[in-house]
Amino acid sequence: MTNLLPDWTQFSLKEKIGQMIVVRASGYLFDHQILYPVWEASNPQLSYWLETLNLGGVILLGGSSAELLLRTQQLQQWSKTPLFIAADIEEGVGQRFKGATYFPPPMALGEIAKSDLSLAINYAYQMGEVTAKEALAMGINWILSPIVDVNNNPDNPVINIRAFGDSPEIVSELGKAFIQGAKNYPTLTTAKHFPGHGDTSSDSHLDLPIISHNNERLESLELIPFEGAINAKVDSVMTAHLLINAWDKQNPATLSKTILTGKLRDKLGFDGLIVTDALIMGGVAKFADSEEIAVKAVEAGADILLMPDDPELAINAVYNAVNTGRLNVERIDESLNKIWQAKQKIFNHQNKNISIYQLSQKEDRETVKNILKYSLKTSKNLPLKVTSNKSQRNLIIVDDILNAEFLDRQMPGFTIPNLLGYDLQLVDQNTFHNVLEDNRETLLQIFIRGNPFRGNAGFNETAKSCYHKLLKKSIVKGLIIYGSPYILDWFTTEMNLDIPWVFSYGQMAESQAIACQTLFNLSTAELREMSENLGDIFI
Amino acid sequence: MTNLLPDWTQFSLKEKIGQMIVVRASGYLFDHQILYPVWEASNPQLSYWLETLNLGGVILLGGSSAELLLRTQQLQQWSKTPLFIAADIEEGVGQRFKGATYFPPPMALGEIAKSDLSLAINYAYQMGEVTAKEALAMGINWILSPIVDVNNNPDNPVINIRAFGDSPEIVSELGKAFIQGAKNYPTLTTAKHFPGHGDTSSDSHLDLPIISHNNERLESLELIPFEGAINAKVDSVMTAHLLINAWDKQNPATLSKTILTGKLRDKLGFDGLIVTDALIMGGVAKFADSEEIAVKAVEAGADILLMPDDPELAINAVYNAVNTGRLNVERIDESLNKIWQAKQKIFNHQNKNISIYQLSQKEDRETVKNILKYSLKTSKNLPLKVTSNKSQRNLIIVDDILNAEFLDRQMPGFTIPNLLGYDLQLVDQNTFHNVLEDNRETLLQIFIRGNPFRGNAGFNETAKSCYHKLLKKSIVKGLIIYGSPYILDWFTTEMNLDIPWVFSYGQMAESQAIACQTLFNLSTAELREMSENLGDIFI
After folding, report:
1. What value, to the nearest 5°, has the Cα angle with vertex A425 and ends A424 and A426?
2. Least confident of B249-253, B384-388, B390-394
3. Which of B308, B283, B303 is nearest to B236 (CA)?
4. Which of A228, A264, B92, B123 holds its CA 20 to 30 A away from the CA of B43?
5. Could you write out the DSSP letters of every residue in B508-525?
6. Interface test with B, best of A102, A364, A434 (most B CBs within 10 A)
7. Model confidence pLDDT, tens digit, residues A368-394
8. Residue among B202, B335, B343 nearest B276 (CA)
9. Are B197 and B242 in contact (CB under 8 A)?
10. What's B324-360 look like in SS3?
11. SS3 state of residue A412
């Protein structure tokens, strides 16, 4: 890092407010690679903003680890003040940026914690440490993780397996361990989404969910893991776009002074960065115009406004609110103080030098495999016996065929069944009905998990009716579910329990290898033989 | 480049032979990303080879431009002697490595040349110049292009639209222009595949094709573009795994002294690098064991052995052949001399410094769009009128759903029809039959082109019968074919000519935008309005 942190007290008021803004940008180097043009500014626009608006940071999505390294170097060069560079890396850096270590979703750790809490804590610590190390290697200095929401609603479409589970104590312990692991490197961590997004059945990316629990319940459940994170000295807390009726009937938490200043800052004593969730999200964007949202968030106590609709408008709105006396400049200075504390941790730290070539170390990949193995669920009647002389299919169902990272021809979910004599049939939920007439014996592999913006947990009535039809024909001879334990629950109540099944929390290559190995009871020798053609990714 | 070229005459015999070997490696940084484990060594193996065997170079596949930059830096560090770093970038660097400029296949230029040769020459020059500039930016110093085969066999499964066309004069002119354009940067060019792979109907990746033409025909057709390339001072010529009966009834060209030394070196006077095509390819690998192949190729006159089965075995085999007197050391030294001439061009040149951030410049992307526009073919009866109140589908057929680079949800071939009210239905040739019962009005988009290793030009009898069934139902209201003009030929003889159609040589985003804009006759204003959601990639 060549830029040194300047003295923020020398900034103009607008430059100060600029530091409170984090904008979204593409992780790709070139404008023609932008995947979300509505949210991600072009390079000329972005470099103009960084240079003239003195923005606090960027949040990046898209691109591989190699791209990110080059991209973060470029962005830091464009900016006169060293930037926060944030990313939603909740399942390791590899979840978003290929090449780095891709961990299973947090709920896999929660599963392990049920039988061995200290083992799960150990894994959560390692996950935090590896995530921070790899983030640093590519110039990410702000990890928007861990999620410390308590996912006690199986229909939650947006948190789901992104949470550590449904027990506040387990979520608290694992969240703390993640934060402590990450503290080995000068990167920031984030507990989210305050005061708890686990008990919703709608998606705040689309609408504003309402939480109707009383104060006692919130304090005895939702807040527990946030208190844990604050005790573990988490660097930032992200707000939720939720209406918490017991505390503020008017304003979503993100815009509520009662909640951000009254509860989080004063009552819980959090003295780090308060960052809003993305302000362009439906849950808050529908609430007021974007200028008013920016002012209200600062008024409520937010230090960082994440992804405002237009950063220039947001800065001007907050600037005008100060000039007209609605906000006082001390409120801004308080935030700048906290921002500088965080930036000093990042930039004035004696940096550990991590080479990009050191990502995804063998021991880190072993940790991933161990988490997957310990959190695997299986039926009693394994293995599925292969009858190699029959015509049989490997029916793979994905959520969205245009958006499935694991759809790579080398993936074990394709290659292992293929070597065992299964023909691949790949469909998504929209084309599922097209393959219902096929009566071949079927290995069914389902890759579906709750994802933001879908409005459901990836499992709708049309899909269920297709699964019913398929199960009725008695051709499904084996089942692997990757991702959602809630989908497993549905199957184990609806299907013939003679069907051998395996459930993995992950969807990545290692998940597929472990699940297929388990379903077919393949020995390591057999896998090794297969691997001469397939590489050693899954051994 | 920090390593300086050492004095090769100080090398041991084995070190000299090592310089004659180019091995395949993954363009990705990490072993868990290797896509072709049979061909691509792990990093420990590769770094050992580079350090101890003094290998001449690597050929890279896989990874984005950003990854390539980091990868080539790593590989050069592992090697004591500066490496050739080659890539099969026949359609611009962006064909293989995302982020860089992706040109249409060479036959698009051949199409333009039919009506305006000087315009096509101009584009070929620019394509060579941009390809060399972008290759250099990421550390690639050997472009395995241009293809100067004359594709005069429509059933050619492996050359096809990778060639500039079926006229030796046009191929010659465009090949020369590409080479001259590339000479603006210190990267090597390659004329391939000597003495001409255009008139085959089998794939030398799988088997050894036989060419039965007599000497006069070869000299008056196949050799013309090679003579052109040699006149333009092409740096290297790649051999073909073909049996040329008129010249050598025993040995494939790659292993034939009559052809490599007699014809290419002595008769045509080529004094640059002779490089074999990949020695692991079926066309030559079936001919003898891998040691014998290595020795025969050197004996025949090859300077570089590309992708031998095992580089250590190949070096030892050639070493033993020298020690037993079958080869003399002058044959090796001749090759080292030529290798050093080439490496001096690359490494001792006053390098133009190209930043990775300068890839894919606006003017280069304009050239791509212009080539696509000038080479577009259309029916007379455009546009396809959109009847927005009807249920209609956008049926997209791809060759292999697990291997389609353009399958990105932002691609105009999906997004434009979607905005016009078409539902996406995406299948590959294996699942095509599943959607034949659907009777909705159909926009049919076909993304199929000849590709190596498939054994056919991507258009088999099963697929044809599906297309027949579809056409018979009279539901196809519009057709876009991306890639193969030979598939267009089939459709224009088999289908009702009232169906409006568009043909594009490219398959990338820009092709899709131009083809859809043309089919629906969208104005730039309409496209711009759509682009608020879609980005400006196709404006």
Report:
1. 110
2. B384-388
3. B303
4. B92
5. SHHHHHHHHHHHHT--HH
6. A434
7. 999 999 999 999 999 999 887 778 999
8. B335
9. yes
10. CCCCCHHHHHHHHHHHHHHHHHHHCCCCCCCCHHHCC
11. helix
Omega cis (within 30) before A452: no
B357 and chain A in contact, CB less than 8 A: yes
Cα B88 from Cα B158, distance rounded (Å): 14
How many angstroms separate the CA atoms of B464 and A148, rounded?
55
In B, minimum Cα distance to A361 occurs at: B30
Q: Are A96 and A88 in contact (CB under 8 A)?
A: yes
What is the value of pTM for the model shown? 0.94
* Among candidate residues A486, A363, A373, the one with its CA nearest the CA of residue A108: A373
B258 min Cα distance to partner chain A (Å) = 37
Query: According to the model, what pLDDT value does residue B519 have?
Result: 97
Say which residues have a Cβ less than 8 Å from residue B513's Cβ, sequence separation at least 6.
B412, B416, B527, B537, B538, B539
Q: What is the largest CA-CA distance in chain A?
A: 81
CA-CA-CA-CA torsion for B245, B250, B253, B258, nearest 10 degrees?
-90
Instruction: Choose among A29, A431, A536: nearest Cβ to B99.
Output: A29
Quick check: helix, strand or coil at residue A54?
coil
Q: Does A356 touch chain B (CB under 8 A)?
A: yes
C-alpha–C-alpha distance, residues B309 and B37, integer Å: 13
Q: Tokens in use for B97?
A: 């490595």
Q: How many CB atoms lie within 10 A of CB B268?
A: 18
Q: What is the pLDDT of residues B313-365, one digit of tens each?
A: 999 999 999 999 999 999 999 999 999 999 999 997 666 789 999 999 999 99
Return the number of other C-beta atoms located less than 10 Å from residue B214's C-beta. 10
To test the contact with chain A by mutation, choose from B24, B29, B32 the residue with the greatest count of A C-beta atoms within 10 A, namely B32
Size of chain A in residues: 539
Which of B166, B197, B203, B205 is catalytic? The answer is: B205
- The verdict on whether A277 is a catalytic residue reads yes
The per-type count for chain A, helices as H runs and strands as E runs, is: 19, 16
**Separation CA A448–CA B37 (nearest Å):** 29
Known catalytic membership, residue B205? yes
For residues A190 and A59, give the distance between their C-alpha atoms in angstroms, rounded to a whole number: 13
Maximum distance among all alpha carbons in chain B? 81
- Whether residue B197 contacts residue B149, with contact meaning beta carbons closer than 8 Å, is answered with yes
Q: Which B positions 125-184 lie with beta carbon below 8 A of chain A?
A: none
Q: How far apart are CA B493 and CA B476, in angstroms?
A: 15
Residues composing chain B: 539
Beta-carbon-side half-sphere exposure of residue B132 (alpha carbons within 13 Å): 25
Side-chain half-sphere exposure of A323, counting CA atoms within 13 A: 10
Pairing of strands A243-244, B243-244: unpaired
How far apart CA B470 and CA B249 sit, in angstroms, is 47
Amino acid letter, residue B198: G
Contacts of B31 in chain A (CB under 8 A): 535-536
Cβ of A492 under 8 Å from any chain B Cβ? no
Q: CB–CB of A397/A429 below 8 Å?
A: yes
- Of the candidates A31, A64, A531, the beta carbon closest to that of B66 is on A64
Cβ within 8 Å of residue A111, ≥6 positions away: A165, A374, A375, A377, A485, A505
Cβ of residue A408 closer than 8 Å to a chain B Cβ: yes
User: Rounded to whole angstroms, how far apart are CA atoms A170 and A153?
Assistant: 16
Measured between beta carbons, which residues in chain B are less than 8 angstroms from residue A431? 425-427, 434-435
pLDDT in tens, A196-236: 998 887 777 777 899 999 999 999 999 999 999 999 999 99
Q: Write down the ipTM of this complex.
A: 0.93
Structure tokens at B504: 């594009």
